[in-house]
Amino acid sequence: MTRLHHQPSSLEDLTIDPADTARGLEIFRREGVVVARGLLPAVLVERTAAFLRTELDRLDGLFRRYGISKDDAAAPAQLAALMERPAGEVPDKDRHVFLGHFPLEVRLADTLRDIPRFVNGHPLLFELLATERLFSHMPPTARFVIPHCSLARVPPHQDISYNRHMGDFCVMWVPLVPIDRACCSMAIYPRTQQLGELLVDSGPTSTSQWLPPIDGETYGQAARVILEPLAPGDAVLFGPRTVHESMPNVSDRVRLSCDFRFFGEQGRSDKHFLDLARDTVVAPQPAGARA
Ligand SMILES: O=C(O)CCC(=O)C(=O)O
Ligand SMILES: [Fe+2]
Prior knowledge:
Elements: H1 11-14, E1 15-16, H2 21-31, E2 33-36, H3 42-58, H4 60-65, H5 75-84, H6 92-98, H7 104-107, H8 114-119, H9 123-128, E3 135-137, E4 141-145, E5 170-175, E6 186-188, E7 225-226, E8 235-238, E9 244-246, E10 255-263, E11 273-275, E12 280-282
Parallel strand pairs: 1-2
Antiparallel strand pairs: 2-8, 3-10, 3-11, 4-10, 5-8, 5-10, 6-7, 6-9, 11-12
The structure holds 2-oxoglutaric acid (AKG) and fe (ii) ion.
Residues 143, 154, 159, 171, 173, 186, 244, 246, 257, 259 line the site of 2-oxoglutaric acid.
């Protein structure tokens, strides 16, 4: 097993001013993660957050069909009980939502392309991916975690295990509300990108259930950095093999976030992706025939 250097790193060590792309690249290469403070304009983040807040309200009907009011204090326990029900009693599509994912229709909305469009006009991602063209996996992910809910907590994983259809990519996790120790952040394990893929037997990569947590033995020597506090506008950028997990929400606030997977001209995706230079969605193509 590869030995990791025991170098403590804190959120501050991982943070850059987004204009300092050279430092961003240096940290990203060495640590497998970099936090770009204030990368995204406030209006853009607020528009995205407002859109998702409205969509979250629209999910009330789905919750109610299962006898749950998501604003109720009992909701986290009721959801946990629901997830224990035998497979088949709760359709995968609904489980996916109860685990904190916005449904596909929401993820496909044009509003959620505005953040990638902005990123396409900024040098940082081009530098990190050593590319002149930028693409992003479609659809992006958008998540909510209701107050006092730990169900939506993703166990330690590397994104490569959920995205076998993609070559090299860079994940961008975007908090849409203020993140602190109570309103759950993510924890990240710097330098774990060097370890290769740790989950050997991944099984299905559906997100109606989480993949099993990777064996702690394989990355246990790595530092664990809890990425808090973060403000709307900040972006966390990490590689496909950087181990990370989400923390439970122990606050009275709803946590909203979205995450994007960008790749450059050296990358690939066998599924739909957004060609940002052309602002168009490209459908899967026959092997080797990408335009
Ligand atoms: O939102 C979370 O807590 C998990 C996010 C995540 O795993 C990702 O963006 O890859
Ligand atoms: Fe992830």
